[in-house]
């Protein structure tokens, strides 16, 4: 699995950092998404999918391998 | 300028409905939403100002609308589904800083400045202080003894104090701003009274901003005054006093009234579901899911949120015309059986779902992580301190907030074995 983010769309709601903190953080400068791991290990793939599903601005794209 | 009037001939379908407001159960949205969602999910809606627009009740439509930039959040041309006089921020002074009524790029500028103060990490760091505030209010309840009104003793003061500390608003002024907020959110407030409350709140915030300019503290308003956004052109870099006052009153109102109602109505809901409450208390890690479910189940932004079409748009075969107001029912969306299994059931263990209690799209609640921390701390602490907590009146005697923009209870008389 690969994770892509479209940073321009992010408004910092924080759903990703809340539901998948191993993969996403929020910037101290403007609260927008910081991708910590673009190729999550198998055990975090469900969290990545959940973060993508809950993002209010479709910032996160999951590319299933 | 060409004014497009909706043509009654082209729309077809049943005559326009008015926004459903009658509940038969205090925990459920009006049943009429179920019928609309099933039979007429994009329905014609008659507004009190005489105009006609639309009401969306399906989860997928509500979510799509709120993420669609062909619809505007600018309320200046919108109709209110409940009042003949929508409180439009139509003069520049009242509009400054009101980012919930703005579209990009105006909205983006404010949101970028504010979001860093409300991140998951920063809000979690507030948890120890929230725990302390909660404990102090529980101590006071214990000292005064039963019965207490949970709204006055716990649900309202806790988020009020938290948002005051976060913004740098003196908590001693709470009687004033709670009164203005309540006037603004009451559906039967007349226009003159509502405008007076709005202006009083604005003048109060302007006064506070002036004080902070000379006596800065370590709270958000002072930080915003000091903000120099390097990405902006110089004239946009600093917020004017009007903008600061606008942001300040938006965060103050949104920061205390919403969480206060979730705490009180959530407590009432948990007391009505003792088995699930016990299970939640037995497993501290289950509290996060329980809070999300309460948000979904109760959807206190009971009349939804509105958008205005910027251009002609088709939704499920219905033609929305440019300029028409569309109401997205968050409460109906959060009870959509197409999306949630047994949506009418409270299931505190429900898997994380795409509930829209905080909205969706670019305007999704800025303070949602703060609200989560407050609820995750407050609910377990309350029920652990008073294991025998129960209603001190009959359920019929609990005054529900059918008459307010934000749903909840006006009072929640509780007792326990002292």
UniProtKB/TrEMBL annotation, chain A:
Its cofactor is [3Fe-4S] cluster. Coiled coil: none annotated. Transmembrane segments: none annotated. Keywords: 3Fe-4S, Electron transport, Iron, Iron-sulfur, Metal-binding, Transport. It holds the Pfam family Fer4_15. InterPro entries: Fe-S_cluster_ET. This is Ferredoxin.
TrEMBL record, chain B:
Belongs to the cytochrome P450 family. Residues 1-12 have a biased composition (Low complexity). The lineage of its organism: Bacteria, Bacillati, Actinomycetota, Actinomycetes, Kitasatosporales. Transmembrane segments: none annotated. Residues 1-34 are annotated as: Disordered. PANTHER family: CYTOCHROME P450 YJIB-RELATED, P450, PUTATIVE (EUROFUNG)-RELATED. This is Cytochrome P450. Pfam families: p450. Keywords: Heme, Iron, Metal-binding, Monooxygenase, Oxidoreductase. It comes from Streptomyces humicola.
């Amino acid at each position: 699995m690969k994770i892509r983010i479209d940073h321009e769309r992010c408004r910092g709601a924080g759903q990703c950092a809340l539901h998948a903190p191993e993969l996403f953080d929020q910037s101290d400068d403007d609260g927008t998404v910081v991708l910590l791991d673009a190729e999550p290990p198998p055990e975090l793939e469900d969290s990545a999918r959940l973060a993508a599903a809950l993002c209010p601005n479709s910032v996160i794209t999951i590319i299933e391998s | 300028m060409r004014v497009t009037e909706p043509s009654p001939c082209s729309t077809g379908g049943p005559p326009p409905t008015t926004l459903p407001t009658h509940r038969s159960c205090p925990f459920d949205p009006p049943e009429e939403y179920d019928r609309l969602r099933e039979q007429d999910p994009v329905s014609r809606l008659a507004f009190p100002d005489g105009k006609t627009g639309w009401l969306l009740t399906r989860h997928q439509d509500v979510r799509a609308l709120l993420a669609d930039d062909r619809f505007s959040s600018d309320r200046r041309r919108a109709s209110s589904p409940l009042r003949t006089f929508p409180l439009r921020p139509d003069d520049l002074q009242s509009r400054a800083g009101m980012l919930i009524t703005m579209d990009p790029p105006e909205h983006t500028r404010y949101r970028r400045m504010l979001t860093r103060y409300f991140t998951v990490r920063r809000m979690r760091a507030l948890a120890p202080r929230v725990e302390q505030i909660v404990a102090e209010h529980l101590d006071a309840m214990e000292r005064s003894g039963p019965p207490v009104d949970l709204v006055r003793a716990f649900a309202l003061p806790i988020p009020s104090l938290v948002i005051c500390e976060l913004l740098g608003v003196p908590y001693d002024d709470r009687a004033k701003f709670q009164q203005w907020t309540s006037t603004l959110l009451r559906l039967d407030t007349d226009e003159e009274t509502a405008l007076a409350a709005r202006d009083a709140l604005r003048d109060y915030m302007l006064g506070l901003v002036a004080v902070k300019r000379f006596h800065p503290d370590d709270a958000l308003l002072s930080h915003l005054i000091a903000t120099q956004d390097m990405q902006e052109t110089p004239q946009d870099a600093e917020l004017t006093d009007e903008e600061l006052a606008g942001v300040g009153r938006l965060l103050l109102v949104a920061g205390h009234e919403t969480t206060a109602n979730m705490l009180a109505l959530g407590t009432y809901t948990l007391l009505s579901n003792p088995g699930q409450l016990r299970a939640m208390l037995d497993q501290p890690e289950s509290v996060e899911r329980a809070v999300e479910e309460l948000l979904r189940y109760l959807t206190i932004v009971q009349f939804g949120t509105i958008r205005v079409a910027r251009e002609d748009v088709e939704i499920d075969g219905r033609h929305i015309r440019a300029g028409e107001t569309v109401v997205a029912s968050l409460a109906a969306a959060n009870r959509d059986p197409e999306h949630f299994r047994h949506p009418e059931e409270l299931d505190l263990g429900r898997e994380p779902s795409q509930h829209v209690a905080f909205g969706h799209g670019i305007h999704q609640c800025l303070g949602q992580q703060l609200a989560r921390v407050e609820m995750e701390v407050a609910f377990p602490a309350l029920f652990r301190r008073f294991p025998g907590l129960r209603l001190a009146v009959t359920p019929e005697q609990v005054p529900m907030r059918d008459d307010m923009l934000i749903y909840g209870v006006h009072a929640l008389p509780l007792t326990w074995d002292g």
